[in-house]
From TrEMBL, chain A:
Catalysed reactions listed for this entry: L-threonylcarbamoyladenylate + adenosine(37) in tRNA = N(6)-L-threonylcarbamoyladenosine(37) in tRNA + AMP + H(+)
CDD domains attached to this UniProt entry: ASKHA_NBD_OSGEP_like_euk
Organism annotation: Brettanomyces naardenensis
Compartment(s): Cytoplasm; Nucleus
Cofactor: a divalent metal cation
Name listed for the protein in its UniProt record: N(6)-L-threonylcarbamoyladenine synthase
GO annotation, biological process: tRNA threonylcarbamoyladenosine modification
Chain positions recorded as substrate binding sites: 153-157, 185, 200, 204, 301
From TrEMBL, chain B:
Regions that span the bilayer: none
Name recorded for this polypeptide: DEKNAAC100598
Protein family membership: Belongs to the CTAG/PCC1 family.
One CC-aspect GO term: EKC/KEOPS complex
Amino acid sequence: MVDMDAFAKPGKPYYLALGMEGSANKLGVGVIKHHLGPLDENNRAEILANVRSTYNAPPGQGFLPRDTARHHRNWVVRLVEKALKDSGVKVSDLDCLCFTQGPGMGAPLQSVVVAARTLSQLWELPLVGVNHCIGHIEMGREITGARNPVVLYVSGGNTQVIAYSRQRYRIFGETLDIAIGNCLDRFARTLHIPNDPSPGYNIEQLARKGKHLVELPYTVKGMDLSMSGILEYVDGLAHDLFSGKKSKYLYDEEDGERITVEDLCFSLQENLFSMLVEITERAMAHVDSNQVLIVGGVGCNERLQEMMGIMAGDRNGSIYATDERFCIDNGIMIAHAGLLAYRVGYGNELEDTVCRQKFRTDEVYVKWRDD
Amino acid sequence: MSTVVSTATSSATPTPLTHTLEFKIPFENEKQSIIAKNSLSPDPLLKPDELKVSFSNDGNVLKITFRGTSDRMIRVAANNIMDNLKTVLECFEVFD
């Protein structure tokens, strides 16, 4: 059993951490509370504040690092103020200040860490740099109560199947090119549908109205996936559809009806999610687990949850997913994972707070678990 | 804030840092000047051969000196520092 309280302040029965996230187009700040002792079903983390501001590019465009960094700089101090006010926590009662150290886009990450460094010096609080993926995993485990699940991490920048083994979150399979969220976002740009609230959400709504399954390339490579070719293909179909072409692959084989944008969204989702289900099932068989935890922005997708649920059900297991407050990037998961690390002695000196665009999930030594 | 720009030509070194720019930023007190330095200085430069940035504190004044191979190199780095400086100042305004 790991001693989670070796660094507790004498006489203080709890810990408080503030977390700051800004690795992509969401800026999030959260405040979390842990009580002494290991976290379990009777000792849950308490969410005191979780605020977010999302930068959305106009329809047909993606968010660029420079504009996103400017958005984060504009909002970061106001969001910290709001989170502190929501939580009712005094700065002097905080134990540490956690920030996303990577992976993510360089400029947005850096715009947030500058605020974190300044505040840590003003408030005389230790800084804890958090791996963004570990933030998702730990928050997902805490919210759902899944003890040792296979983790499917699906977002705009990452697609990984992860399982815990000997104090590392090990990557069993991942994308070889673009992330699944990136694939969906870019298809949304091709369709010129809004990025608000998120491009993936709008694709999901269209997909519900799809009736015809269009055959797309299926590209599972061992435990890994490739998605750029599928995007290229479905983009091509959409262009042909918009330009009014009459090719036979734009008509359904069975009823002869012309395929629609909704059909394309539906088919893209079905195809990509089947690939995810396949590699996740293989990872579950390999580590002999029957729990799947879905985290990351694409994890909000109810069709993905449904498909994964059917697979897990067939294996007498179950899926664990969270809602958009925790699936989509947020500050609370950074506060939570940072606080876990802080409680076993992690911390960053100022000169050691440089953010990294590439920061693998399995680089982190998970000292707070020993199962 | 005061800035001094000077340009010199012809130097024998392989990558002459011929261009310089200096910021002198007065803060309310020495503590703020030191915090600003510590917040801005950790991030490494993309091309250390072509640009050097040094930070020093003199009382409540933070001095940032850019030395680079071209005005372009310096402009990019200086703009970035100014953007980050705004965040630091906003933190002071609200929380100090």
